[in-house]
Amino acid sequence: MNKKSQPHNGFTLIELVIVIVILGVLAVIAVPKLFDFSSDARKAAIEQTAGTIKSAIKMVHMKAEVAGVAEDQSAVIKIAGKEVEIRYGYPKLPDYPNFMETGLFSSIDIGSISLYGKTMNNTSFDWVYQGMGDREADGVSRPAIDIGFGELSKDGSGSESGISPSDTNCYMRYFSAKGSTPATIEATLTGC
User: CA angle 133-55-102, nearest 5°?
Assistant: First the structure.
């Protein structure tokens, strides 16, 4: 009996294994880069919140002008039933521990926020802020704070420093008003 060999119409096991390995390598390298939206999400959150703060700054200043206290070094105005401490017509920097009830943060709602480096028993916050002392912006040195993502402390005790907002290079910096120089906010997005 003479058997004719039939042509093979499939792939060998070795060819299938090689294709699967190549696809696996591509998936490991390419897919995370294609679908890493966390950086875009952090940038969008910073930009959106900076826009919210800019709007609040303008609203507070307009209310201060209407109330006739826009030139005062220190004053208090009411917005939506809340007292907002102002400096030269703009929200003043927050005071710890009542930072949610005074100045800038009393005029906006950006979620939960806490002061960097304070003991909070590993409580989760949307934002962390850090006092930066005097910083220069628009040619004027004035008090500033950074608002961004970070950790209060590594272990929640406040004894070990965690990651500050400015360490991440993904934050907003609020510059307080000084004299005739208005309050401003700038975003740094290079580390997002």
Answer: 50
Q: Count Cα neighbours of 81 within 13 Å in the Cβ-side half-sphere.
A: 0
Distance, C-alpha 10 to centroid of its chain: 55
Kindly state whether residue 114 falls inside one of the protein's structural domains: yes
Neighbours of 95 (CB within 10 A): 11
User: Tokens standing for 50?
Assistant: 């900076």
> Are 46 and 192 within 8 A, CB to CB?
yes
Could you give the count of Cα atoms lying within 13 Å of 15 in the half-sphere of its Cβ?
3
User: What is the value of pTM for the model shown?
Assistant: 0.71
Residue 76 lies in a domain: yes
Number of structural domains in the chain: 1
Radius of gyration (C-alpha) of the chain in whole angstroms? 27
Range of the domain at 73: 38-188
Strands (E) in 47-183, as ranges, are 75-79, 82-87, 90-91, 113-115, 127-137, 140-148, 171-175
Which stretches within the chain are classed as H helix? Answer: 13-34, 38-67, 103-106
**Residues 34-82 pLDDT 10s:** 777 788 888 998 999 899 889 888 989 999 999 999 999 999 998 878 8
58: nearest Cα among 48, 68, 70: 70
Compute the distance between CA of residue 95 and CA of residue 33 in angstroms, rounded to an integer: 42
